Write the structure tokens for this entry.
Amino acid sequence: MTALPQQAPPPVQLTPADFPDSPLSKAFRQPLMLGVFLNLQDIKFSGLPSTSTWTFDYNAAVVQRAEALGFELAFSRTQWLPKGGYDGEASLDAFVALGAMAAVTKTIMLISTMHVLYGPLHPLHIAKYGATLDHIAKGRWGINIVTGHRAIEHEMFGWQRIEHDERYVLAAELFDVVQRLWSEDENYSFEGKSPWKVVNGFITPKPLYGRPVLVNATGSDAGIDFAARYSDIVFITSPGGSHIDSALETLPAHTARIKQAARSIGREIKTLINPVIVSRDTERETEEYANAIVAHAYGPNGRGNGNRQHDSDAHAWRGRQDAKNKPGRGLGGNIEIVGTPEQVVEQLVALKKTGIDGVQLGFYDFAPDLDYFGERILPLLEQAGVRL
Ligand SMILES: Cc1cc2nc3c(=O)[nH]c(=O)nc-3n(C[C@H](O)[C@H](O)[C@H](O)COP(=O)(O)O)c2cc1C
């Protein structure tokens, strides 16, 4: 693994977790944080009818509903795939769309994915856009720092994919500078190994709580090292793949390792994972629903699976290829949680015990299934003591 550059830290490096009244600190008080994993992409892996769609209005309504239910965060990914890719018909940019949701929400945190190496994106852009959204959202906006795991995406921007660990080195240099711009009271200049330079850069206003929320999603050593140094939250995958049994077996060691990596440099980091929830009142109805999703699946070459043909060097999903792990059913999500409301709660409580601090939930038929979660499952989570 390539070591991250050892730059001198900025003079005062405060994070939102250092402010007890920041939205992040409030979220951290929940035993199990709740989020929604939005689909701003036209991801359809099954033809079973569903209301889910990529449109802004649909997803903004989902976020408002999640906020009304007391959820702490909303997240969406962004991918840059050629025609026929994972996006199917359409895909909105998460940076713009989640940023815009700041104006129609009040309490929920909004985490936008940004491919921070493509372009290249200048640190002044990230710092200025970030400070602006931070003020509009009153400290509720954050970045999912993504470096791009698919060769085809880097090629779309006109170059070859940068080597896996080197991407984290470049992202670290970038965020050292972005954080300086968010905290320095004087003009700041920088020249390093990245293709951009800063000469007398200055950003004001400063973010309200030190800086926006920072997140990255990883399973690799280099990515965990990066998360330990820069992120408040790390989006993790199950080393055991998507079956809940294998996930529960493999997650304790994984979450402990990630938290230890942060603690070893005097930081704390929270772990979030994204299950899909498939639930109905009875086991029979739940099975019927899950089976219907699978029965209508488009298959490996069907619509919605266009991403699989593109090479990826990501470590995070390697557990799915390991034959000793139980396979998932193909319901979407990094983990599949299937069952009656009581069984869902059991599985979420079990996840919490593995060191998971929060879940960002996905649903096959997003809006009605989120309503069902709010009505039937959330009260049981409160009774179980994992929601305040
Ligand atoms: C919950 C989650 C969300 C992600 N969102 C995106 C995304 O929006 N765009 C993207 O290109 N990669 C996304 N990724 C991939 C990560 O950025 C990263 O490339 C991947 O986790 C592999 O990292 P690793 O090789 O360090 O394990 C996501 C990963 C996870 C687990």
